[in-house]
Amino acid sequence: MSSALTDLFPLPIVQAPMAGGVSVPQLAAAVSEAGGLGFLAAGYKTADGMYQEIKQLRGLTGRPFGVNLFMPQPEYADAAAVDVYAHQLAGEAAWYEIELGDPDSGRDDGYDAKLAVLLDNPVPVVSFHFGAPSSEVLQSLRRAGTFTLVTATTPDEALAVQRAGADAVIVQGIEAGGHQGTHRDNPETDGTGIGLLSLIAQVREAVSLPIVAAGGIMRGSQIAAALAAGASAAQLGTAFLATPESGANALHKQALTNPLFVRTELTRAFSGRPARGLVNRFLREHGPYAPAAYPEVHHLTSPLRKKAAASGDAQGMALWAGQGHRMARELPAGQLVEVLAAELDAAATALSALPKGGAGS
């Protein structure tokens, strides 16, 4: 692990920023207090909403933490395709007795306003999803004393992150729950992502940046494997989703280990961008027809998802989860960090005890 990263948090465990109300201040504080790096998710929040959560988190812990931003998205969605999808969702809206959302509700997620807050009130770490920010943005954050990370899903994206000047790269494997952090949404590459361990090795040879590994990690032994492959730390999302401090809906937490939900898939059904979730009715019925249109589809389905959650209907919710979801443990977040650290130590000890074999061993 790079010295700058090591100085921030003693354990190589990062709690992933999960948007939609999951990564609340209580969760981030518990992880940071236990020696990991807790994260707030600014995605889908206003700049003031983000600022209020930062203030709340600072009241809960004096330890370093991070804030994640979504990059603004280019305008390349096919408006006609969005209209067709809205027509297909009309039955859902009628069932829930609500109106669909306005697909033209905004594309930049308040990016500039959030950056202004983070430059005026610097936080220890800022990460970016859905692309790399400009070199000027990264330099401004560095001058403010902020450590920067950017998600990459391919070696080429990692090279772009290095060229932009980020301090580290989050390498996200295809196993990861929630949205893939691809820099450009290309429907032709759907389902062609790279597994985490292979991706770590490829990125390690492509760039000199420290790597934070993300994707399907649920146990300390998996963290050990990621570190052995060349990562400096591991980022876990689904593992923390089931904790009592998580802001996830109770139905979402229960679904992780509910035998009704046996597998995950990458889908555009809920947001228009590839995201891994538990396969439920909504995903099965609408996933094959959802266009590549983010954030238009996200805005369109937002009322549906909220009403499904309020109605206790897990079959209509976006149940984001990584491939290791069945391994979720309902432990307090701080205790989970401790358990993961103990598992990591045990795995590292076991690895060090293996014979250093050569050709004649």
What's this, in brief?
This protein has 361 residues and is α/β, with parallel strands linked by helices. It has 15 helices and eleven strands.
Describe this structure in words.
The protein is an alpha/beta fold and 361 residues long. The chain has two domains: 3-73 and 108-246 and 324-351, Aldolase class I (TIM Barrel), CATH 3.20.20; 76-106 and 262-318, no CATH class. Helix content is 41%, strand content 13%. The protein contains 15 helices and eleven strands. It has helices at residues 3-8, 25-33, 47-60, 79-88, 90-96, 111-120, 135-143, 155-164, 196-206, 220-229, 238-241, 250-255, 281-286, 296-310, 333-353, and strands at residues 13-15, 38-41, 65-70, 125-129, 147-152, 168-172, 178-179, 211-214, 233-236, 264-267, 275-278. It has an eight-stranded parallel β-sheet with strand order 1-9-8-6-5-4-3-2. Strands 7-11-10 form a three-stranded antiparallel β-sheet, with no helix packed on it. Helix 7 (135-143) links the parallel strand 4 and strand 5 (147-152). Helix 2 (25-33) packs parallel to helix 3 (47-60), helix 3 (47-60) runs parallel beside helix 6 and helix 10 (220-229) packs across helix 15. The relative contact order is 0.16.
